[in-house]
Design brief:
single chain; 492 residues; alpha/beta; Aspartate Aminotransferase, domain 2; Aspartate Aminotransferase, domain 1; 11% strand; binds pyridoxal-5'-phosphate
Length: 492
């Protein structure tokens, strides 16, 4: 499938003197502009702006929008990112003027509807997670991690237990885990994975002691595998006085099936921009709600949204036990509205279906492709799984310098109109290719993707040069990665 190829820059379309507007004569007398401070006046005209007529500009941006790839354009199996379809009703709800018109500093009595929505989302997440209370203030998953770790730190500090400066993080963790822990001032202690990709309990045991603040775990982990030893791990960490942190960025397959709170976790974050359908990518707005078990609620950041049963009103409270503020106001409110619409659309019956279908779709692709791509960890996966490049018989041998790499497979997928999976993550394998189809894709789309992946494996065998040159039909050909990082404006 070829998409329209369009790539001139608006500067290249510029023609001196061409205009897209005609303004009336400036009605202001000269003396008004002469009042402007001279240092603010442009000294050396003309400006270096493109000059173009309106039609050229309209065509330019309309054609350029066709160069974007999004969930609404095609299949986007970007592992760990949960690029599911974002129902348009959520966008409509978030755009309601009653929501978009609220000033963030408006007083609580004048935004009761917004606070009610906030409260219902935080309560629903608490129910889904099996925890006591949530805050929706953090702006992203990593921000949620930092907030959750600050809750853990505050908990130890309030008990006067100041020696707990270390946090245990599995070697398979998402990079944000150690980064957030470091920002929180904690020292990272790495625990190894076993050959089946889960946390190695025997490696964990000697790491535990009176200096451990807690342990971060991702479940399903970044290999898409359910961590079966959680009860045992939680018992060991709790016995040594630490708290259990759940990275719930990828909660999708767990929805309505099992709950972190029931597994023994004390603190967690959820990504609304993944599991709860908010569109994301390109660094767009996110939301990383943080939940805690009973006894830790007061440490959640200020302001907190509470329902006052006596006055029947919603209130904003700041309490002295809290770890402080982590965001201006109440977080990314538009994202919270989208999550609310999504939760209500799915309802209690629909939520568990979403998780189960995401697992079914991932396992379907995995089973159909494992005779072509190397599956380092076999068996049932959750919503995503990892291939370690092509099988050697299709040119994927790691030891041969001329092998076909994961990068080449990923680039070739673009020619067929699919977004590439997440590549070279997790770091546990050389040629990681992390595939997450999500529940929103039809069997026809999954089959089309499977066919193309098989076709690419055969191309690797018979036309390796074509793969090395891919992509062939995208608006921008293969980038010089090093140059792109160092010199962004010349990378294409
Ligand atoms: C995406 C992700 C994060 C980080 O979320 P951001 O919103 O990108 O900061 C953390 N952990 C896991 C497992 C993730 O997949």
């Amino acid at each position: 499938m070829n998409r329209t190829v369009y790539s001139p820059l608006i500067f290249e379309l510029s023609k001196a003197g061409r205009k897209g507007y005609s303004l009336p004569q400036n009605p202001c007398p000269d003396y008004q502009t002469s009042q402007l401070p001279t240092e603010l006046l442009r000294q050396n005209a003309p400006t270096r702006l493109p000059e173009a007529d309106e039609l050229t500009v309209a065509r330019h941006y309309t054609n350029m929008s066709g160069n974007n790839f999004g969930v609404d354009t095609g299949f986007y199996p970007l592992g760990s990112c949960t690029m599911k379809y974002n129902p348009k009703i959520n966008e409509e709800m978030a755009a309601l003027p009653g929501f978009t018109g609220i000033h963030p500093a408006q007083d609580a009595p004048y935004m009761q509807g917004a606070l009610k929505l906030y409260d219902e989302v935080q309560r629903t997440l608490a129910e889904v997670a099996g925890l006591s209370r949530f805050t929706l203030n953090p702006f992203a998953g990593a921000h949620g991690e930092l907030t959750g770790l600050m809750v853990i730190r505050t908990y130890h500090e309030k008990r006067g237990d100041l020696q707990r400066t270390k946090i245990i993080v599995p070697d398979s963790a998402h990079g944000t885990n150690p980064a957030s822990a470091a920002v929180c001032g904690l020292q990272i202690v790495q625990v190894k994975s076993t050959a089946d990709g889960t946390v190695d309990v025997e490696d964990l045991k000697p790491l535990l002691g009176p200096d451990i603040a807690g342990m971060m775990m991702t479940n399903p982990n970044t290999l898409g595998i359910f961590e079966r030893q959680i009860p045992e791990i939680a018992r060991l960490v709790h016995e040594c006085g630490g708290l259990m942190y759940y990275d719930g960025a990828n909660l999708n397959p767990m929805l309505g099936v099992c709950r972190p709170g029931d597994m023994g976790f004390d603190v967690m974050h959820i990504n609304l921009h993944k599991t709860f359908s908010t569109p994301h990518g390109g660094g767009g707005p996110g939301s990383g709600p943080v939940g805690v078990r009973a006894g830790l609620e007061d440490y959640l950041p200020n302001p907190q949204v509470h329902f006052n049963a006596e006055t029947q009103r919603y209130e904003l409270r700041c309490n002295g036990e809290a770890l402080g503020h982590v965001s201006a106001f109440l977080g990314n409110f538009g994202i919270i509205v989208r999550a609310y619409a999504y939760l209500l659309t799915l309802g209690k019956e629909g939520i568990p279906m979403a998780g189960k279908l995401s697992v079914l779709n991932a396992n379907y692709i995995k089973e159909c492709l494992k005779d072509y791509y190397c599956l380092p960890i076999d068996g049932l996966c959750k919503h995503e799984f990892v291939f370690d490049g092509l099988l050697p018989q299709y040119g994927g041998s790691h030891t041969d310098a001329s092998h076909i790499t994961t990068l080449e497979v990923a680039k070739r997928l673009l020619d067929y109109g699919f977004h590439a999976p997440t590549i070279y993550f997790p770091l546990l394998f050389h040629e990681s290719m992390m595939i997450e189809p999500t529940e929103t894709e039809s069997k026809e789309t999954l089959d089309a993707f499977i066919d193309v992946m098989k076709k690419i494996a055969k191309e690797a065998l018979h036309h390796p040069e074509m793969l090395r040159q891919a992509p062939h039909s995208t608006p921008v050909r293969r980038l010089d990665d090093v140059k792109a990082v160092k010199d962004a404006k010349f990378s294409f």
